[in-house]
């Protein structure tokens, strides 16, 4: 017996081979080795087989049986010519009985007494069967009541419904947002943004947000010069500051900050004297007409902000040969309730990111380029009151309720001397980033972005609204997380720094983690400047999110007097969403309150950053009810994107947007329209054949859902173009109130 055990692994395999050959002799394939037919091997194999059967019947041998099964699997994997199914009869009772019939020596050598019949076998089987049935029924009852009594959110957020969303959002209160807003305003007077960043990080951490951290970048900022810029009339010698006040020592003393901060960041600096030429809104057709009439080389353009992106208009003026630009906002383009005639503003000429590291992150060791000026033009923002003085026009141009735009008469000539002073310095910009890790898909990110005050920039208060809103949503969300719930996908909360200088914080973070973000970001929800008025709710989104945003907007607008139609143009989303739209093709959504006047046309007036008083936001929303509405609308969209098993994106809306844009452009050939039509048909098939089954829990397969979500999140990336005019977005589906983003 000891010898048999010692030679068991190898000899047992031979016994199996012999058994296979004897039982399945008629199935033997030609070419089998004669080694398998050797009689000595057969006898040895049979000895071992019978001994093994006797040992396997001994008590305590069950563990060996399991180990032997594992060894057999390993041996069989190494023996390619053996069929696992054919080996089984050799160890079955049927195989042994065939051997007894075929080989007489086997019978005489190995005799075994017949098993005694047991009259209790039937009783035992009956008892076992009854016990199994009782246990089965008992298990069903336990599972039923356990499932009935356990809350659905204890296992996965995939079972969340609208009721749970409302439970999370109902804890958002206007009073909490108001208190947070006022606390933030007390901090912005600091000369750097470290205190604000620390306050945000401490607050988010106290709410329970995971892994809140600072992300710092050393970047090149364009700051106001040591003395205010000025505009001087050559004919009279009168000198004015950008706000229209005469140049004087008293004005410098009493309004130093107001005089310094109306400037264009990253503008060329210096002094220029030339003729003022009114170019209106700076459209390409207007500039062509002006160039035929006048010499524009090194002249000064009087340019209105609005209608088209500022960077695009400045690029046209550079090509036309202008040397300077006086930039202003026509009062006729503003809501009637807004009087900004004497207000000045700041603009940034930075398309995005740190100018010293274009296209790559500003981390330690990065090569720095000398790009203090991003344009050859001297650009100076001025107030409408100063424009009225330059053109000798009355400031009140409203007659019978009709506003007359500011225009320089064609037959008059104005020669001015403009002086622009700016300085560039390397400063640290800080982002605050926190995470709420997802439960089932932690590698898919929903980014929620706000921004905070950056030192040395204008003292507007939109950042406080933005930060207060994102903090209110984090508070409501973490209350539910502490009770055991988590979203399916990871939610990343970001408070960006350097937004006023050209979305520097978001650009640098995006460039540093570009590969990860391209692969994993699902959507971006923007909270940039949520309160710009109090007349109407304004929702804007990428095409794939149009349907979801329309549902939320219509539900909210059903209780209000007026709401505009949902605008799907991503070109109008300003702020830190820029990088995620233009460079990553991430679906983006934003809710904001606007004045109705600002919604009548693509004004681009939001490019101007006014020096607002701290109480301005509270004047527009004294009870912070608008802040609460924005928080809840944005929060519900975030929850749906982060929790729905299938992303709530619509492929058909993208195809329709492409088709509509091409139809509105007369330059597109018939082939493009035909391709757009085929794209629409494919999107319809995709919606019906793939989206519908995936949204049905009975037909949903996890692997197919994951593949489908990957397709949905990458759809808009297919419509990114590499080269676009300055100021325009890189999505071919972007429009400006229904017109193609092509400026020509």
What does this structure look like?
The protein is α/β, with parallel strands linked by helices. It has 26 helices and 21 strands. The strands form 5 sheets. It has a 7-stranded mixed β-sheet with strand order 1-13-15-14-16-18-17, sandwiched between helices. The radius of gyration is 38 Å and the shape is elongated. Residues 1-117, 149-160 and 735-744 have low confidence and may be disordered.
Briefly say what this structure is.
Keywords: Membrane, Signal-anchor, Transmembrane, Transmembrane helix. The protein is of the alpha/beta class.
List the defining traits of the structure above:
alpha/beta, seven-stranded mixed beta sheet, membrane, N-acetylated alpha-linked acidic dipeptidase like 2, 744 residues, Peptidase_M28, signal-anchor, 26 helices
- Give the assembly state of these chains: single chain
- The total count of helices amounts to 26
The N- to C-terminal Cα distance equals 95 Å
Strand content: 15-25%
Question: Kindly state the mean pLDDT as a whole number?
Answer: 77
Rg calculated over all Cα atoms: 38 Å
* Biggest sheet features: 7 strands, mixed
Q: Low-confidence parts, pLDDT < 50 over ≥5 residues?
A: 1-117, 149-160, 735-744
Class by SSE composition: alpha/beta
Estimate the global geometry from the Cα principal axes: elongated
- What is the helix content? 40-55%
Strand order of the largest sheet: 1-13-15-14-16-18-17
DSSP, total strands:
21
């Amino acid at each position: 017996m000891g010898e048999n055990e010692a030679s068991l692994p190898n000899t047992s395999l031979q016994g199996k081979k012999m058994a296979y050959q004897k039982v399945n002799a008629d199935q033997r394939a030609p070419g089998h080795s004669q080694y398998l037919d050797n009689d000595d091997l057969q006898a040895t194999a049979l000895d071992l087989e019978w001994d093994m059967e006797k040992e396997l019947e001994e008590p305590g041998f069950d563990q060996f049986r399991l180990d032997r099964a594992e060894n057999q699997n390993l041996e069989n994997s190494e023996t390619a010519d053996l069929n696992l199914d054919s080996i089984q009869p050799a160890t079955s009772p049927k195989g042994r009985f065939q051997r007894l019939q075929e080989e007489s020596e086997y019978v005489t050598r190995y005799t075994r007494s017949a098993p005694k019949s047991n009259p209790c076998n039937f009783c035992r089987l009956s008892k076992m069967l009854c016990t199994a049935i009782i246990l089965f029924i008992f298990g069903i009852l336990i599972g039923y009541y356990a499932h009935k009594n356990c809350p659905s959110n204890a296992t996965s957020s995939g079972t969340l419904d609208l009721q749970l969303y409302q439970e999370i959002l109902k804890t958002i209160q206007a009073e909490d947002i108001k208190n947070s807003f006022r606390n933030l305003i007390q901090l912005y007077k600091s000369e750097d943004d470290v205190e604000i960043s620390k306050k945000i990080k401490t607050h988010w951490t106290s709410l329970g947000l995971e892994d809140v951290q600072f992300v710092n970048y050393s970047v090149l900022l364009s700051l106001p010069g040591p003395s205010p810029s000025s505009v001087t009339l050559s004919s009279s010698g009168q000198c004015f500051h950008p706000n229209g006040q005469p140049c004087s020592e008293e004005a410098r003393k009493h309004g130093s900050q107001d005089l310094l901060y109306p400037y264009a960041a990253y503008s060329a600096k210096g002094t220029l004297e030339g003729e003022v030429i009114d170019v209106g809104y700076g459209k390409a057709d207007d500039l062509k007409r002006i160039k035929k009439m006048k010499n524009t080389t090194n002249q000064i353009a009087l340019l209105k902000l609005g209608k088209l992106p500022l960077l695009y208009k400045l690029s046209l003026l550079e090509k036309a040969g202008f040397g300077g630009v006086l930039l202003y906002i026509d009062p006729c383009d503003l809501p009637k309730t807004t009087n900004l005639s004497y207000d000045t503003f700041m603009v940034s000429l930075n398309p995005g990111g740190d100018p010293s590291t274009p296209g790559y992150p500003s981390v330690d060791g990065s090569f720095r380029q000398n790009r203090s000026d991003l344009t050859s033009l001297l650009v100076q923002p001025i107030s409408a009151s100063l424009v009225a003085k330059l053109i000798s026009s009355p400031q009140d141009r409203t007659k019978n309720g009709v506003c007359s735009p500011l225009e320089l008469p064609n037959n008059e000539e104005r020669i001015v001397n403009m002086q622009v002073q700016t300085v560039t310095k390397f400063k640290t910009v800080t982002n605050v980033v926190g995470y709420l890790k997802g439960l089932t898909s932690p590698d898919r990110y929903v980014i929620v972005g706000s921004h905070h005050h950056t030192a040395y920039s204008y003292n507007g208060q939109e950042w406080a609204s933005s930060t207060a809103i994102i903090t209110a949503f984090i508070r409501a969300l973490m209350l539910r997380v502490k009770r055991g719930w988590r979203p399916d996908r990871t939610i990343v909360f970001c408070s960006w720094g350097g937004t006023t200088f050209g979305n520097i914080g978001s650009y640098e973070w995006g460039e540093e983690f570009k590969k990860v973000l391209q692969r994993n970001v699902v959507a971006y929800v923007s909270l940039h400047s949520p309160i710009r008025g109090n007349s109407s709710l304004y929702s804007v989104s990428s095409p794939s999110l149009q349907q979801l945003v329309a549902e939320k907007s219509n539900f909210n607008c059903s209780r209000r007097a007026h709401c505009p139609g949902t605008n799907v143009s991503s070109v109008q989303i300003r702020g830190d969403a820029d990088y995620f739209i233009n460079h990553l093709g991430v679906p983006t959504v934003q809710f904001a309150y606007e004045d109705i006047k600002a919604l009548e046309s693509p004004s681009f007036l939001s490019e101007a950053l006014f020096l607002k008083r701290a109480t301005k936001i509270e004047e527009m929303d004294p009870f912070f009810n608008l802040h609460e509405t924005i928080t809840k609308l944005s929060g519900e969209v975030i929850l749906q994107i982060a929790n729905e098993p299938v992303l709530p994106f619509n492929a058909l809306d993208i195809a329709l947007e492409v088709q509509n844009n091409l139809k509105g452009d007369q330059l597109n050939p018939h082939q493009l329209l035909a391709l757009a039509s085929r794209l629409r048909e494919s999107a319809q098939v995709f919606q019906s054949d793939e989206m519908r089954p995936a949204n049905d829990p009975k037909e949903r397969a996890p692997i197919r859902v994951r593949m489908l979500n990957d397709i949905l999140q990458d759809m808009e990336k297919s419509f990114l173009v590499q080269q676009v005019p300055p100021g325009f977005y890189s999505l071919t589906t972007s429009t400006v109130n229904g017109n193609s983003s092509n400026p020509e």
